[in-house]
Amino acid sequence: MSSAAHPDSAASAVHPPSAETIARAHVDAAKYEAMYKASITDSAGFWGEQGKRIDWIKPYTQVRDVDFTLGQVKINWYADGTLNVAANCIDRHLATRADQTAIIWEPDDPKDPAKHITYRELHAETCKMANVLKSLGVKKGDRVVIYLPMIPEAAYAMLACARIGAIHSVVFAGFSPDALGARVNGCDAKVVITSDGAPRGGRVTKLKDNVNQALLHDTTDVKCLIVRRTGQQIAFRQGLDYWYHEEAAKVPADCPAEEMNAEDPLFILYTSGSTGQPKGVVHTSGGYLVYAAMTHQITFDYHEGDIYWCTADVGWVTGHSYIVYGPLANGATTLMFEGVPTFPDASRFWQVCEKHKVTQFYTAPTAIRALMGQGTEWVTKCDLSSLRLLGTVGEPINPEAWNWYDSVVGKGKCPIVDTWWQTETGGHLITPLPGAHPTKPGAAQKPFFGVQPVVLEPTTGAEIEGNGVEGVLAIKDSWPGQMRTVWGDHDRFEKTYFSDYKGYYFSGDGCRRDKDGDYWITGRVDDVINVSGHRMGTAEVESALVAHAKVAEAAVVGYPHDIKGQGIYCYVTLMNGEEPSEDLRKELRNWVRTEIGPIASPDVIQWAPGLPKTRSGKIMRRILRKIAENDFGALGDTSTLADPSVVDDLIKNRSE
Ligand code: 6R9
């Protein structure tokens, strides 16, 4: 992949919004300036007003109570208010839009019929799911793991938890049994909701088998609720397993919505960091919903009657905020897609846009690059005249992909919002707003309301003022969608995000601020890699590799990959007496796939007789990254290495 354009290069052409876009937009340039200023100078006043976009059972009187000081970090928004998130996403729309479609479900196989679920039906289905969970003993505050394909039941399950005050933790259906088991244990879940199988791209993953394997050594009697999707055979655990359709038939289609405090956890979502195992990011109810709803409306310029489609999976935060919570809080019609962009062929996305007359389309650069490589005919043969706005998320977008998206998909008429945010941030933090900002290919551009990005000098942590500067990206003050803690480990929360740069939330990303004050995200500056928009800690892949009996040591780095953005490059040192071979390479690749999941599949495994280490034994990843990038001229200082000759060996073996 060519990296994001340098802000001063010719590729950074400016695309001003059209008069039509400006006229329709909720926010134009002048309004952005005024609102942004107000959001910073009077944060409590601004968010106090914005909080009213959702319904409260007991209105809040306190807006914010925030401290970013290491050792006493606390983040509270609307703390004395009470509400129910599911009631906000469903019940409050019933008076005005009960018969409007809430969810359009498009199945994996285009030959199967799509489903249109109205708000009235969403209410009944969510209530049934809520009552079934209750019948299995789930109470307010209990954790429920959701391990489902992209089927409507995934949304029902999330909303059902919210309705009864249970905390959901959605695990992407592509994760392995081990990864699932770790997450079930990590949050001490009472119930896992899954399906018999998950069809994707014409192939079926045996989800229930994975759950059985994940729970093999479980002694806490985790129950499992199984949605029938494929009809395949499954192994039932007597006394612990329940078919959803059988249980749902026994319960009423109405269930009261629990009164929740604004700061009660809504969900836990595990995400990768630079050290250790994935951490459970905790989002709470009130602030998260206000922020998801507001960003969904303004960034995507959502209006009544729009058909909005975000292609993410609910296993990631993008699916939480921009398939389920944001759109439904706004009473929107949100499209849920079970399949993949290239099945049955590379026209699938565009056919779905045509079929359902999609107005806003939100996807990841990796998908754009993959489809771009297939040629334009797949796009041009579809009628995309309904499209009004395009969005991207997950990784920096290279200008070639941006320009293709703009001209071939958007026909030069759709503004592109390149939204920078993270699992931790709950919603967009830096993004152009369609009617307010001329866009630049590859730039995430402007802070959303209330967001104060700063560029820090990486070593000293000093704020770098002015424009035309580069450093690491941190945020100065809180916003309502910010994560509150790491599940069960507030210390880790503080250490991870507030200890490197005192007084700031540190994002882990690098960035530039160009001459116009626009932000360009340059990618992670820690040991997190971004493979096809999926976040992965190199430490996770390393610990999977060293768990193999023949592996003595492993070091993993990212390297530029044309389609995936970054690929996974593994240096592996074998145990004494073990011989490298193609078979072993295959075996290790499969091993990592089973330990973590197919998304963690190594792209390159290089045999490394030794790894470059400092005298204190620290692996010098900087050098390994350069070798993986084939950039041998810029290895930097290798004199502190315990044995500098290992570097020559690695370079020699690089092309093998
Ligand atoms: C929402 C999401 C977060 C990391 C983040 C950054 C990268 C996301 C981006 C982007 C450049 C964008 N990232 N959006 N980089 N431009 N528009 O992706 O959350 O899975 O937690 O990943 O993704 O590196 O730090 P998450």
From TrEMBL:
SUPFAM superfamilies in UniProt: Acetyl-CoA synthetase-like (SSF56801)
UniProt binding sites for ATP: 394-396, 418-423, 509, 524, 535
GO cellular component terms, A-Z: cytosol
EC number per UniProt: 6.2.1.1
N6-acetyllysine PTM positions: 618
Record's comment on post-translational modification: Acetylated. Deacetylation by the SIR2-homolog deacetylase activates the enzyme.
PANTHER family hit by this protein: ACETYL-COENZYME A SYNTHETASE, ACETYL-COENZYME A SYNTHETASE 1
Membership in a protein family: Belongs to the ATP-dependent AMP-binding enzyme family.
NCBIfam families: Ac_CoA_lig_AcsA, PRK00174.1
Name listed for the protein in its UniProt record: Acetyl-coenzyme A synthetase
Source species: Seohaeicola zhoushanensis
